[in-house]
Fold this protein.
Amino acid sequence: MMPTAIDVLHAVFGYPAFRGEQQAIIEHVAGGGDALVLMPTGGGKSLCYQIPALLRPGTTVVVSPLIALMQDQVEALHQFGVAAAFLNSSLDARAQSEVERDFAAGKLKLLYVAPERLLGERCLELIAKANVALFAIDEAHCVSQWGHDFRPEYRQLTVLHERFPGIPRIALTATADAPTRAEILERLNLGGARQFVSSFDRANIRYRVVEKENSKRQLKDFLAGHKGESGIVYCLSRRKVEETAEFLNDNGIAALAYHAGMDAALRAHNQQKFLREDGIVMCATIAFGMGIDKPDVRFVAHLDLPKSLEGYYQETGRGGRDGLPAEAWMCYGLGDVVTLAQFIAQSESGEERKRVERAKLDALLGYAEIPSCRRRHLLGYFGEVVEKNNCGNCDNCLNPPAAFDGTELAQKVLSAVYRTGQRYGVGHLTHVLRGVDDERVRNLDHDRLSVFGIGAGFDEKQWRSVFRQLVANGLLATDAEGYGVLRLTAASRAVLRGEASVPLRKPASKEERRATRKSARGERVRQSLDIAPHEAPLWDALRATRARLAREQNVPAYVIFHDATLLDMLRARPRKVDELGAIGGVGAAKLERYGVAFLDTIRAAG
Ligand code: ADP
Ligand code: ZN
């Protein structure tokens, strides 16, 4: 009897159940249908073509732009006992002809090919002669000229359909927006394909935004809650990347740096180390991350504002691909907004482009300052309507900020901006409001203004919070030149005239801020995976066994078993082979290869 999709999921991959729409997609594609799959990062796109590849006779050809990762993907399949290989420029002539021979002889279930290689006549002829089951086009958004991953060769992939009309195709991407989707359908000639659009919610990622005070100290506090875990820390500049990595290493946290200005070999080395070893913190610019499918990234921290919400979602989406809890943490201040506005102002782009970029920055600021559910706001930005008001897994849902009528405060700020001639930034304006009698204030005669000292009841940080919220609400605008000068907007007038009210998040007082820090410290003792102290010895032993097996074969640790699988072993403590085989992620091939090693580890722990 023919195996079914679920049989293959159990027997080969050892997973107990499908996620989301996987089953419907797999059945459609295995039955010979074309498909376009939109799923967030970590949604489980690979299985959507890997299982059809195992169900259909012949070889599935996977087009992927990420040469550096093909080897790991193929290695992961070998670990599951699946015959797979890749063709790209990293192979020498002999290795290449060997793969070609295996392909022609029907020995492979999956063949990963770089697009430029696939389009060559040599490869197309090979495909014509071989028995091809399916074409899988991964990272399909690379056809889009508007995205940042544009790959011209992707547009020529229509040749597959023209030359091999009888072979089904599945295109996959994590890029959600409608224009990109339309472009994929058109460019890849997939008009007749069935579309599978998943929710882009990543329920296991916890979103948190904190106000920037001393970002290094804040990062260190944050990482104290993620000891021994792998994660990414994004910084805006190369210099900051290096400084941050150094700072973390000085504080006993194993960190590496990655940015485009580094020597290519060192960069590749660091990436490899991050992928292969447990518990490394990668400090990086956004040059890092495309196609990093390390499943056990437990946190993604932004020390600076990302460039856009799209970028933010993609970057944070690299956390928790294995479905276990992960945290997206961002530390930001108004200074970041000014810096980004400056970048935009000084860039070579045309006016139209600058306008778009400023709108993106505003959207980001709106996200950072929103008092309600961040997940709902994020998904809403991508056009997904979320019914629930409270996701239960973002800072605002976990600790709802107190609602507060900020109309009077807003009026004070806007008057101060107006009276000082709309020519100053937050620092000076705050001094005026608080009645700080410094040299600048005196030189400008600002101590004689009616607004001088009208906000003495708030400290500097509280005023900064008010300013940020007013900018986020569109009641103040940062100058287009990027000097950090604040100006009134069209919406400010109604507030000044008392015609509109301004709900704000109440800016926390010094005592309140101290209390929050303290409770955060209490919370942060908990690691993502909630390993209890009495479980720690076995957990460490399981990880050590995994690390040893990975080192012996020079493969990433997660290729042996995911954290989720080790966690199940920890909790179930299987003693016999069949008990171990029932653990999620332990398929037949892995049971045979590693069963003894892990059963020994569990037995040794008593
Ligand atoms: P994507 O390509 O969509 O980002 P992947 O295909 O890499 O996601 O899947 C993310 C991780 O989740 C992988 O490590 C994969 O093994 C795991 N995974 C996928 N589907 C399932 C499932 N049904 N059950 C358990 N784990 C799964
Ligand atoms: Zn929420």
